[in-house]
Write a structure and sequence with these properties.
Blueprint lengths: L1 H17 L12 H4 L3 H12 L14 E2 L14 E2 L3 H18 L1 H17 L1 H12 L3 H7 L2 H18 L5 E6 L6 E11 L2 E5 L5 H14 L4 E4 L6 H16 L7 E3 L7 H6 L4 E7 L2 H10 L4 E5 L5 E4 L5 H13 L11 E5 L3 E3 L2 E3 L1 H15 L3 H8 L5 H9 L5 E4 L18 E4 L5 H4 L7 E7 L2 H15 L4 E4 L3 H14 L3 E3 L32 H5 L2 E9 L1
Parallel strand pairs: 5-6, 5-8, 6-7, 8-9, 10-11, 10-17, 11-16, 15-16, 17-18
Antiparallel strand pairs: 1-2, 3-4, 4-19, 12-13, 14-15
Helix pairs in contact: 1-5, 1-8, 3-6, 5-8, 5-10, 6-7, 8-9, 13-14, 18-19
InterPro entries: Ald_DH/histidinol_DH, Ald_DH_C, Ald_DH_N, Aldehyde_DH_dom, PaaN_2, Proline_metab_enzyme
Protein name: Phenylacetic acid degradation protein PaaN
Organism: Nonomuraea deserti
Length: 548
């Protein structure tokens, strides 16, 4: 197991330093990449779970629970062992010493083996992600598969680099009168304790894998608590992890599944005195609750934010509109990185097609989205389905918030007639309506806002992000001075910035090993995926010394 993955780990370690493009796992679902019949076998594996108890050898109460329903209109009917929180924690604590003693290298290489096996079951996972999140299949395969796996490997690399940044042993000699003082010293990485990963509904693997693998690689057992509507992708993940750990001679209780049907298990686990690390992605309300109440643990949260676009000018009118239209439409805006507030000077902007008034900018964006999603069969492969009724309610309520620039519509899915699908709604609101645009409207809801100037737009970006947080910000300008001002505004707000995106790179997508997801410098997140701060608090170094 170790030698097979050493090269992959070394490449990942180089990638987190160089920050250039590198991916360990191909994102194309083509048979040329993953082999003939892989897609069919993956779908069959997914379908074999439906309507049955999930095959997970893990103790519980003896009851089987589960209530997942696909956003495409299918009851999955998969059930999972109902956990006993104290039993999972005690088993994890018992498994910890041997995993700690294995050392950083053995743990890291075992984690890479887990990720490698996850990759080999990519089509099975893609179907599970699609039918628990509402993502279209290609997105489910890519974001839920190779992109998530790259983020897992990235976390392992950061963890390994942090654990091995200094020597594990040293001979210490200090000159003295007569014979020198000589000591033999050992420095052991000691895990913080049992970790809890609380999964989200929209990106169950992509958002859970960094915390899962950062904790596991640093020696901490992990309890995985999926969102009740998106259990299956993480159940498959836990199943694979337990298999690998057992084969390597470790206690499979190092990774356990804590499924629930919405009975508050996350709160029970997160505040348990033996839970020492909590990773959470989801609502601001619950994230804030965790930060206030899980005081015995290191808490990493990724919460809601108000992602902002500042438009000053552009040398690619069609490219800018096309790029923004795609970003607004992808997965129906159900991404923590999707743009929401689009700030445009009330006097309009200069473009390569001449001056455009504010109304022309708003109308141009509406037309670009309409063109992109004009064909239903094409549209649904980009938008996917709405993940829950709350998103639908926000879309339906959006017209009451201002002047509708683009109405949402309900495309019909050719394969899933019961899927709930909505295209983006765009609403014009005034700068004074901060109670509207100053909070997140998760889903395909965005606002175009006329400002007095680009400077005013950048000031508004600072204020809203400092107050409510954001995962992304974007700016368009032909002026290098304006772009410098935008960068300073982003630094002040603590948000990652993208400038002049007009091609195949989009503000709501980020590349592992190169792009930092979140910054930890504004209220939307406490850390970045991934930077050294994300892994450092998951372990301590304890020394022992004796005379040589």
């Amino acid at each position: 197991m170790q030698e097979r993955h050493r090269e992959t780990l070394e490449k990942a370690l180089s990638a987190i330093v160089g920050r250039g493009y590198w991916s360990a796992y191909p994102e194309s679902p083509s048979p040329r990449v993953y082999g003939e019949g892989a897609a069919e076998r993956g779908k069959e594996a997914f379908e074999s779970y439906l309507g049955k108890p999930f095959p997970l050898d893990q103790p519980g109460t003896g009851n089987w629970i589960g209530a997942e329903r696909s956003p495409y209109g299918i009851d999955l009917g998969v059930t999972y062992p109902e956990p006993v929180a104290d039993d999972l924690i005690e088993a994890a604590k018992a498994a910890l010493p041997a995993w700690r003693d294995a050392g950083p290298e053995a743990r890291a290489l075992a984690c890479v083996e887990i990720v490698d096996r996850i990759n080999k079951r990519g089509f099975e996972l893609a179907n599970a992600v699609q039918h628990t999140t509402g993502q279209a299949f290609v997105m489910a395969f890519q974001a839920g598969g190779p992109h998530a796996q790259d983020r897992a490997l990235e976390a392992v690399a950061y963890a390994y680099a942090a654990m091995t940044s200094s020597a594990a042993a040293a001979r210490w000699e200090k000159p003295a009168k007569g014979e020198p003082l000589v000591m033999e010293k050992r420095f052991t990485v000691v895990p913080r304790g049992v970790a809890l990963v609380i999964g989200c509904n929209t990106f169950p693997t992509w958002n859970a894998y960094p915390g899962l693998f950062a904790s596991l690689a640093t020696g901490n057992p992990v309890i995985v608590k999926p969102h009740p509507r998106a259990v299956l992708p993480l159940a498959i993940t836990v199943q694979i992890a337990r298999e690998v750990l057992a084969e390597a001679g470790y206690d499979p209780a190092l990774v356990a599944l804590a499924a629930e049907e919405g009975n508050g298990l996350a709160r029970t686990l997160a505040t348990h005195p033996d839970i020492r690390i909590v990773d959470f992605t989801g609502s601001t309300e619950f994230g804030d609750w965790l930060e206030r109440n899980a005081t015995q643990a290191l808490v990493h949260t990724e919460k809601a934010g108000v992602n902002t676009v500042v438009i000053d000018s552009t040398d690619s009118w069609k490219g800018m509109l096309g790029n923004l239209a795609f970003s607004l439409s992808l997965y129906s805006g159900q991404m923590c990185t999707a743009p929401q507030n689009i700030l445009v000077p009330a006097g309009g902007i200069e473009t390569d097609e001449g001056h455009k008034s504010f109304d022309e900018v708003a109308a141009g964006l509406a037309a670009a989205v309409g063109k992109l999603l004009g064909d239903d069969a094409r549209a649904v492969e980009l938008t996917g389905a709405l993940v829950n009724p709350d998103v639908l309610a926000r879309v339906e309520a959006a017209p009451s918030l201002g002047e509708v620039v683009l109405e949402s519509r309900a495309p019909a899915h050719p394969a899933f007639p019961d899927a709930v699908i909505r295209t983006p709604v765009i609403v014009r609101v005034d700068p004074g309506q901060q109670d509207v645009y100053g909070r997140e409207h998760f889903g395909p809801v965005s606002f175009v806002i006329p400002t007095g100037s680009t400077r005013e737009s950048l000031d508004l970006l600072r204020r809203t992000i400092k107050a409510r947080g954001a995962l992304t910000a974007s700016a368009y300008s032909t002026s290098s001075d304006v772009l410098d001002q935008a960068e300073r505004a982003a630094l002040d707000a603590g948000v990652n910035l993208s400038c002049n995106l007009t091609g195949g790179v989009f503000v709501n997508q980020s590349a592992a090993f190169s792009d930092y997801h979140g910054s930890g410098a504004n209220p939307a997140a406490t850390a970045s995926l991934t930077d050294p701060g994300y892994v450092a608090g998951r372990f301590h170094v304890v020394q022992s010394r004796r005379p040589a």
